[in-house]
Amino acid sequence: MADYYEILGVPRTADAEQIKKAYRRLAMEHHPDRNQGSEEAEARFKELSEAYETLKDPQRRAGYDRFGKDGARGAGSGPFQGGFDLNDAVETFMRDFGGAGFGDLFGGARRRGPAGQSRAAGETLRVRLPITLREVVSGATKRIRLAILEPCGTCSGSGSADSKEVEACRTCGGTGEERIAQRSVFGQFVSLATCRTCRGEGRIVRNPCTVCHGEGRVRAERDVEIEVPPGVSSENFISLRGRGNVGPRGGPRGDIVVLLEVEEDDRFIRDGTDLVTEIVVSFAQAALGAEVEVPVIEGSSKVDVPPGVQSGQAIRIRGEGLPELHGAARGDLVIRVRVWTPTKLSREQRESFERLREVEAPPPERVEDAEAHQGFWSKLREAFT
Question: Do 319 and 353 have their domain in common?
């Protein structure tokens, strides 16, 4: 593996804020949910998260700076005690950046059970949830059906056909962990790792259940209700803690991570909490002023176009945009005005324009808000995409 600082693209003198910003930018780019399951992006995402977990912690960073990766492992508890997998990487990202105030994720891939034994938590479920702009304004309660792993009813989740056939693991003595000693030129480091024999459970099932094949869980369908607060965006995640897959053989439930996807609305472009739209007016409406109909989130509304408006000028309607996430304020509706030039004129229209040309004032050399040959709408879409 490359140097952690090189992975994040930061100098060795980088402070905590620089490390955090670099990780967030790169993790957003390589997040598995944004790369259609690309194995290359997944590996890169895991690598970035492992580097971030090390360098954000002063104690582990100091150990890494002195002795490399082995030094980071030996510098207290952390994500390396039982290895660092994709679930750890996703939970690292969700914990520090994805929750956006919707609830926290638990930090470890395993949890302690009775008698010091470790139970593997269920895998984190990641689902996409489309929502409309109208639901962004008001919030919404959504219900989705998921395929989820539930405890096996035959063995009560133990994975064993006979409870007497479950015995403590002889390799780790039932603790679920092995102590691994590693020697280097700097001395000996002792670290804890998940037991290879029992995979961290501390016990061995000799007679597996025939229904779940020793897993202690079976696949089922369950309806899940999700509360979406107002003001969310497509970068937000909602974490439903402890409502995902049950862990193998009595392990605790994992999480459900909901990736929000705000559907595009052809009428608007979103700019934070503001909504931007466009209206087209005629020469006469631009010169004399007019009352025109404009789109709003729920239908349409009337707005006064002032006399003498120029193409490209904006009319702002306060409070008709989107709400802040967990805030009381609401953005504005920004209406860009585009003056339409007719391409086909009737005889009467041509005569009217010819009379107007005789009496109208010459145009200024430059109009600040005038649009170039490319339409404002297409330029704005390019800017935001």
Answer: yes
CB of 240 closer than 8 Å to CB of 125: no
Task: Using alpha carbons, select from 111, 130, 82, 157 the residue that is nearest to residue 255.
Answer: 111
Question: Domain of 52: which CATH number?
Answer: 1.10.287.110
Which pLDDT tens digit goes with each residue over 280-305?
Answer: 999 999 999 999 999 999 889 999 99
Q: What is the pLDDT of residues 99-150, one digit of tens each?
A: 443 433 333 344 444 444 446 778 889 899 999 999 999 999 999 999 999 9
Beta carbons of 321 and 274 less than 8 angstroms apart: yes
Q: Which of 232, 214, 121, 98 is nearest to 160 (CA)?
A: 214
Rg for the chain (alpha carbons), in Å? 30
Token readout for 38 is 């690309």
Could you tell me the residue range of the domain that residue 204 belongs to?
113-260
Last residue of a domain, one of 67, 98, 129: 98
